[in-house]
Design brief:
metal ion binding, HMA_dom, 32% helix, alpha+beta, Alpha-Beta Plaits, Heavy-metal-associated domain-containing protein, 4-stranded antiparallel beta sheet
Length: 68
């Protein structure tokens, strides 16, 4: 299992945070999602078949910027 932090911009409310958390936890292989609204950091625990690229794409497709 891997744990990664994805840095994002645009998550400003608890509702947005919950929506992204629900979206990501529906992905096969994603086990834990913790979002810090203040910093925009999303800590994700996952394993195959989920990967960092597909997780970042889901966040981007939901309308949020992924920062590198």
């Amino acid at each position: 299992m891997q744990q990664k932090i994805v840095y994002t911009a645009g998550i400003e409310t608890q509702e947005q945070s919950e929506a992204i958390k629900n979206l990501l936890t529906e992905m096969i292989g994603v086990y834990q999602v913790d979002i810090d609204i203040n910093s925009g950091n999303i800590t994700i625990e996952f394993e195959t078949p989920a990967n960092l690229n597909s997780i970042e794409k889901e966040i981007y497709d939901a309308g949020y910027k992924v920062l590198y």
